[in-house]
Amino acid sequence: MKALKNHLILFDAECPMCRMYTQVFVESGMLDDEGRTAYEELPAQACPMLDRQRAANEIALVNQETGEVTYGVKSLFKVFAASFPVLKPLFLFRPFVWLMSKIYAFIAFNRRVIIPAPLAANSFELQPTFKLNYRLAYLLVTWLLTAIVLSAYARLMPGLLPEGSVYREYLICGGQIFFQGAIISIIYKNKRWDYLGNMMTISFGGALLLLPVLLLAHWFNLNPLFCAAWFVAVAGLMLLEHIRRSKLLELGWILTTSWVLYRILVLLLILLTAN
After folding, report:
1. Whether 128 contacts 193, CB under 8 Å
2. Looking at the structure, do residues 153 and 246 belong to the same domain, yes or no?
3. Containing domain of residue 91, as a range?
């Protein structure tokens, strides 16, 4: 694999995801051993052409010979094109570039809620710009995908969970966004969008953990009790993750309590309306 020589990729040191995939670039030989550094640690005089705020938003790649800087998905394309030249025509295909730039921005502007990092008093002065449209898009996408999985999973527990409307899981997932959103808006309004993003990451992560059982159900006749037990185990893991992320956001126990309360109230409502 050919490495991209004389280039330096700048990652967000406070982003676990950014640290991880840029390290993979180095370890796989796509970049030189000294081909990555945190933008927080780069001296201002080292690269006068660098837009430091943009580098905080999108990963930057610096040509150390010319000083030229590329950002975002174009930086990644440049790294991949050096190692996989056969992909160069694809990286020049404008519809593909446009699509991937939107996907990249969707992830980049939500990266702090996908994989959170602890709040630090000595955080770097420049932080990623908050983009409400991308956060709303993230809430919408995770809501829809989670509801789709839950709707399919509910059918694996006949006799244990009353059959409901095709829209039931969509309403439950969407309702929790509004329920928790109302509570955090009252007590921690400035952390509302960070919390809701983290909450929906937890919900989506739980949905992903249900997928193995959904796949098994295509080949085996699974006992509803087994499916219910798996669901409860996943819910327990989600609760632990909610507690962990709430601590990272310094939210205390109020949001975790209301998160559990909402689910209990919904379950009681389902059971009562079925009788």
Report:
1. no
2. yes
3. 7-113
